[in-house]
Amino acid sequence: MIRTRDEETVRTVTIDRPERRNALQPDDLNALRTAVDTAAQPVTYLRGAGDAFCAGADLDAVAALDDPEAFARAGQRMTAAIAESDTVVVCGVDGAARGGGVELALAADVRVATPAATFAEPAVAFGLFGAWGGTVRLPRVMSEGDALEFALSGRVLDAEAALRTGLVSRIVDDPRAVADEIAGGKPDALRAIKHRLRDRRDDERQEEAEAAVFGDLVRAHADEIAAERGR
């Protein structure tokens, strides 16, 4: 479930499924996209409910996919909406960000973490990888070497390691305060700065390839995904 709360300068978007660590189902991708696309506020603050930020894609949904490429493309449209929207998206990671949760954070304009935040791409262990634009954005955020090691190993980064590698820009007790700080700028200036720094021309071709490979891997590792889902 995706909830929104509007104030004068900040829209708060909450992934509210704490019993499943805020894992995203297919309908959530469109709901997140809409929540960002319709924000009238200059800043949108993205968070997770409970003690996790987002566990990524719900593996029950992944195991049942008839068209995994379409699922990947829906996730890419969602993260593209975050990256391309007129609202500045500040992502506050408190607790675990895994898989698609990392990709969701990568799409945001500003990523901040609490001391309790952790990040990992564990799906490599059962034959998958992040296909919501993560392979495009990760080496832009980290160095290529750090990005490869992080994605290939599946290891967990704590908040300090995320700060060292550039995955987050700050460690704070209250990520919402960063959204409020940014919202103090003039809306037209915030919008202009975001779009100039975000200008990219060839992401679409990269993401088409990403979605196709994701589909191949879902089909090839269906048994492993089903086993992981049952844990």
In short:
This protein has eleven helices and ten strands. With 231 residues, the protein is α/β, with parallel strands linked by helices. Strand 2, helix 1 and strand 3 form a beta-alpha-beta unit.
Low-confidence stretches: none
The largest β sheet comes out as: 6 strands, mixed
Query: What is the CATH C level class, in words?
Result: Alpha Beta
Reported CATH architecture: Alpha-Beta Complex
Corresponding CATH superfamily? 2-enoyl-CoA Hydratase, Chain A, domain 1
Describe the structure using short key phrases.
231 residues; 2-enoyl-CoA Hydratase, Chain A, domain 1; four-stranded mixed sheet; 48% helix; 17% strand; ClpP/crotonase-like_dom_sf; Enoyl-CoA_hydra/iso; Enoyl-CoA hydratase
Written overview of the protein:
With about 230 residues, this protein is an alpha/beta fold. The chain has one domain: Alpha-Beta Complex (2-enoyl-CoA Hydratase, Chain A, domain 1), CATH 3.90.226. About 50% of the residues lie in helices and about 15% in strands. It has helices at about 25-35, 60-65, 70-85, 100-105, 135-140, 145-155, 160-165, 175-180, 185-195, 205-220, 220-230, and strands at about 1-5, 10-15, 45-50, 50-55, 90-95, 95-100, 110-115, 120, 155-160, 170. Helix 5 (about 135-140) packs across helix 6 (about 145-155). The relative contact order is 0.15.
